[in-house]
Hints:
Layout: H1 7-28, H2 47-66, H3 77-81, H4 105-125, H5 128-133, H6 135-161, E1 189-192, E2 195-199, E3 215-219, E4 222-225, H7 231-239, H8 251-260, E5 268-271, E6 274-279, E7 282-285, H9 297-306, H10 314-321, E8 357-363, E9 389-392, E10 409-411, E11 420-421, E12 425-427
Amino acid sequence: MPKDMNAVAFNVLKERFKGVRSQTEALAAVFSAEDLCVQTMPDVSPGKWHLAHVSWFWETFLLQPALSDYTPFDPRFNYLFNSYYEAVGERHARPERGFLTRPGLDAVLAYRAHVDQAVCDWFDQADAATVDDFRAVIETGFAHEEQHQELFLTDIKHVLSRSSFPEAGYPRDDETPPQIAPEQPDPVWIAYEGGLYEFGHEGDGFAFDNEGPRHKSWLEPFALASRPVTNAQYLAFIEAGGYEQAQHWLSEGWERMQAEGRRHPFYWRHGESGWSQFTLHGERPLHPDAPVCHLDYYEASAFASWAGCRLPEEREWEYAARELDPGHGRWADPKGLLEPAAMKKGSSLQAMYGEVWEWTRSAYSAYPGYEPAEGAIGEYNGKFMCGQFVLRGGSCLTPPNHARPTYRNFFPPDAQWQMTGLRLAKDIAPR
């Protein structure tokens, strides 16, 4: 243990490293090598690639800079498992990750074990100053691997959905959910007066660079729905011809819907027994009171327009969530329910964390005074600040301890395969 470092703080870092790494392997353990080698679309990475890439991150950004005599497990892996870091070198094309039959899963797991042992040995031997120097990299490594745990789940879900035998990835024996109810009550509206407030991360806890700096911004009076939009509400939009009403759609979204002939959310299926959706637990009846998920930004925006509302601004969402505890959310557990759960009716904010990521209408851009970190790790967030929209909250596939009010997730507006939904917002007159 480092001489000048608090023993509790040091052990927390080391134990969290082991916990994050073991959680990744627990999520992957139920799948075969064949499952983990498939890439079903360019946005999907094979499970095996995720397992290797997060190990490459620890090797590249911690072990090699911290240990002058460290020898990479296999120098070729820098090309295969670099994602988008230009400063680190050339890389295998993302749409062709499914071509990587080699290295095999056994070799990737050996790579993980090698990196795990090297990092644990480093923890045991490093002095206090060295650990402090690399604390930001270590905490970023935790968050990075947690992000890839969620990506692993959304990617393997797409892989399973395209199989000729689309069986459950994580079996469950739950009672069959009720059928879609003919009518759903409107959500309760929670009003906020608006004003000048501070936003963004501040303090000693970890946050990505895009969550700061702390700054002031003005909010006009607004209201948020007490819960995310449900499957039943979205089905009403479909049955009312929402996908055929151009007036509710952004131009790019309308063109996409027409070109693809899309008439329902990703993973929804209609058969003799009604509506169902494909999940990580197999195909399951659609639950009316569960949040609708796998909507892209265009669908979320169109639904909000059809409902006579709008999507929230990201700072409105953050202001409403400022007093809520993310620990009360429902987070990813390979032994739990890996799809949005039914919500109860209520007059307070529900499911701000842990069911679906919620689209906002805020473009993903820099806060006032933002500067990306120096070096290759500075490519993590800043260079994607174009053509994306911010999502807030967290989903049922998000790892524990990976959510906070200031967290800014982001995806392009046509992204459907992520666990994305929406909460309605509207303007209100000042009191």
